[in-house]
Amino acid sequence: MSAPVIGVLALQGDVREHLGALTAAGADARSVRRPAELDAVEGLVIPGGESTTMSKLAVLFGMLEPLRTRVRTGMPVYGTCAGMIMLAEKILDPRSGQETVGGIDMIVRRNAFGRQNESFEAAVEVAGVAGGPVEGVFIRAPWVESVGAGVEVLAEHGGHVVAVRQGAALATSFHPELTGDHRLHRFFTDMVRSAR
Ligand SMILES: NC(=O)CC[C@H](N)C(=O)O
Question: Any idea what the CATH number is for the domain that residue 135 is in?
């Protein structure tokens, strides 16, 4: 069977690291910046970066509505950090005009871990990912404040939800693309394969 074609939304953020991790996980990875490129992928990663900027660029590039449509109609999608924020139905204290794609019935708090703790690493046990905890790299990371009934909580750190899944949509507060451990990218690649 052919490798799943998985895009990385390449408007802003750490695109190259995700392309590398997806390739290592067995996907045919491509960057996606335009609607026609989105049409050509089976699944999409929304990377970390800065969610306000990403939101503005999504509007500017005419990508917001195509993204909403693909996610609503079941395309597998994985958001890390700023990408998690993009998948939230609601953000606490959004910057004015900050739009999201939505897809996961959750409320997300931006920069939630606070100034004292802007960046840190922690071992995180993720439900469904075998082989022990993953190294979670948190960089001005959001956490999930609350979830709706259809959302599965996959991981917590310090009493806060940091990984969730709803159907074909996956999100983590942290950045597995920065660690060389490709288990989460394999997990997502398997989600894309089983959506075929
Ligand atoms: N590493 C990240 O993606 C940080 C996310 C950023 N704090 C935001 O609000 O968009």
Answer: 3.40.50.880
Contacts of 120 (CB under 8 A, 6+ apart): 113, 138
Give Cβ neighbours of residue 11 (< 8 Å, ≥ 6 apart): 33, 54, 57, 58, 61, 63
What pLDDT digit, counting tens, does each position of 126-161 carry? Answer: 999 999 999 999 999 999 999 999 999 999 999 999
Residue listed under structure tokens 């939304």: 9
Number of domains in the chain: 1
Distance from the alpha carbon of residue 140 to the mean position of ligand 1, in angstroms: 6
> What is the residue range of 24's domain?
5-194
Q: Is 110 annotated as a binding residue?
A: yes
83 touches ligand 1 (CB under 6 Å): no
Q: Residue 134's CB: how many other CB atoms inside 10 A?
A: 22
User: Model-level pTM?
Assistant: 0.97
Give DSSP secondary structure letters for 90-150. Answer: EEESPPTT------EEEEEETTTT-GGGSEEEEEE--TT--SS-EEEEEES--EEEEE-TT
- Give 169-192 pLDDT, tens digit per residue: 999 999 999 999 999 999 999 999
